[in-house]
Each structure stands twice: as C-alpha cells, then as structure tokens.
C-alpha cells in the first residue's frame, strides 16, 4: 500500500516559486544522482509530474529503485522543503500525452521521452536551525 502525504497551501506556494527542481535518485545499490529539472508540475496536493527530456542516470536509477526526492528552495520560496515519493514511469496514456503536449508547446526541441509521476509520501524541512530535517508530513 502506498502511503501518501498532501502538501499544505504554504508548501504548494513554495513549490510554485522554486526556480529549478533538483531531483535526487539512487540506484538499487545506493549510488546517488541529482539533476536539475525545469519541466516539473504540481498536479494536485500529492502528485508531481517531471518530464524526462534528457534523463540518463536518473531514469536508470528510478527503473531500479522507484523512489525519488525533490528539493524546493530558492530566494523566492521563503523556506526549504524536501519532498520524497514513489515513482511511476509512463510512456503512454492520457497523462503522458498531456505532459508531452505541454512540453512540446514550450519548444519542439524537447523530446518528452517519458513522464515521471511522483506520488508524495513524505515532506521534510531542510531549512537551517532547530527544525532542520524534521518530518513535516
């Protein structure tokens, strides 16, 4: 059974203001990878979509270990959170087609190879201070 967490209105506002979304993954052997993502959407309170335009190590890691984390921070966000979740990789279907159309509307140069759908399971604080690392959801 998948455990889900729902983002608060404050967390959703932080998400919307982030300039880039570092996506962290790890292989089944625990080899980490982090890559900056720009084609990222908060679909609802517990679902994030990431377009796979140029993923290599990240995609391989998620195929072996379907978990990921996204770091939300920037001068505009007024805070810092880490969102963890369960991953599904989609290459067909209505959600994939919607993501592909959105990406292609920005530019035909982006391949939109697959849709990474993240179901949010946990949210942690990553702001410095006494609450650093605390689980928020």
From TrEMBL:
Q: Report the superkingdom from the record.
A: Archaea
Gene3D superfamilies per the UniProt record, alphabetical? Electron Transport, Fmn-binding Protein, Chain A
Matching Pfam families, A to Z?
Answer: PNPOx_N
Domain Pyridoxamine 5'-phosphate oxidase N-terminal, by residue range, is 7-125
This chain's protein is named Pyridoxamine 5'-phosphate oxidase-related FMN-binding
